[in-house]
Amino acid sequence: MGTTWRVLFAAPQDCDVDGVRHAIVRRLAGLVAEMSHWVPDSLLSRFNRSSAGTWTTLPPDFAQVMHQGLAIAATTRGAFDPALGRLVDCWGFGSIAVARPPDATTIEAAHASSGWQRLTYDPTGRHLHQSGGVSLDLSGIAKGHAVDAVADLLRTFDIMHALVEIGGELVGRGIRPDGDPWWVDLEVPPGISIQPLRLALHGMAVATSGNYRRGAHTINPRTGRPITSGVVSASVIHTTALAADAWATALTVAGPVDGLTMARDADIAARLVTVADGSVQEHFTPALISMLEG
Q1: Domain residue limits, the chain
Q2: Distance (Å, rounded) from C-alpha 61 to C-alpha 9?
Q3: Residue 75 φ then ψ, to 5°
Q4: Lowest-confidence region among 19-28, 57-66, 120-129, 193-202
Q5: For the segment 209-262, what is each residue's pLDDT rounded down to a tens digit?
Q6: Of 24, 210, 231, 277, whose CB neighbour count within 10 A is largest?
Q7: 211: which residues sit within 8 A by CB, 6+ positions away?
Q8: What is the tens place of the pLDDT at every residue in 88-140?
């Protein structure tokens, strides 16, 4: 996934810590083998190369990500879109390096073969249909699912109190050994002066999307070009890191006006940080305000 992972937990008596670590590594390797846009022989890469009319049977993890990802794509009216792989590649944001930004013709061609609505998914048999030329990129959701998967894995070792972090996305279960909750601070983009916001992750997850780490790498599915919404950071608190991850991407794309309306209608707890004409503003959704006041 091109990032790091970290797990803190209260170890039960006689816990095999090395065994836990090896199990986490195996679990993450399995997810990468299924859903990595960077690994040529991953199941995702093979789907992207498959012929028009092909049906691919997805394993459970991949199926869960697609099922929930397509639902979030519909709810956000495509602000989150798992089928932008060709656009991601033509801009050089994926595994293929490009010498210069694409021209309008290249963007239009990639845009024409992109979009979640070109996918057909049968949840009963976990079958995904390739309509022809559609390329998946699950960078905005698979990492969140991996955080949830590791947290769930810990329960098989009777580890009920843990904080799992992958690339800045976190989920907290139970409490710390000292009795405190798992406290985390929301990320603040460099050069932005705002008050820190500390959250207690007790059975909750948080994900932050922004262009301050890797530059303007988030694609607007509607235009096929990098976003210009003015949102420099979107943090979402949710019961799962998968949903928090996808919604953070969607709100970054949608912008402060449409994004806040969308989040309010879906009862999403989120904070958006925007910059316009040199002015920094924080925007809180009603769900987050209620959470902070509670």
Answers
A1: 50-130
A2: 24
A3: -65, -40
A4: 193-202
A5: 976 555 557 899 999 999 887 898 999 999 999 999 999 999 999 999 999 999
A6: 231
A7: 217, 218, 226, 227, 232, 252
A8: 999 988 877 888 999 999 999 999 999 999 999 999 999 999 999 999 999 99
What pLDDT shows up at residue 19?
Answer: 97
The structure tokens 């249909």 sit at 129
For the chain, state the CA radius of gyration. 19
Q: Kindly give, in sequence order, each residue whose CB lies less than 8 Å from that of residue 107, ignoring residues fewer than 6 positions away.
A: 87, 90, 224, 225
User: Per this entry, what is the length of the chain?
Assistant: 294
Question: What span, in angstroms and rounded, lies between the C-alpha atoms of 272 and 220?
Answer: 17
56 token code pair: 């691919």
Ramachandran angles phi, psi of 142, nearest 5°: -65, -35
pLDDT beyond 90 at 64: yes
* Global model pTM greater than 0.90: yes
| Residue 67 in tokens | 């099922």
| β-strands 169-173, 204-209 pairing | antiparallel
Residue 13 tokens read as 């008596």
Share of the chain above pLDDT 90, in %: 80
By DSSP bridging, strand 279-284 and strand 269-276 are antiparallel
Tell me if 224 sits within 8 A of 78, measured CB to CB. no
User: What's at 76, amino acid-wise?
Assistant: T
Give dist(CA 269, CA 199) in Å, integer: 12
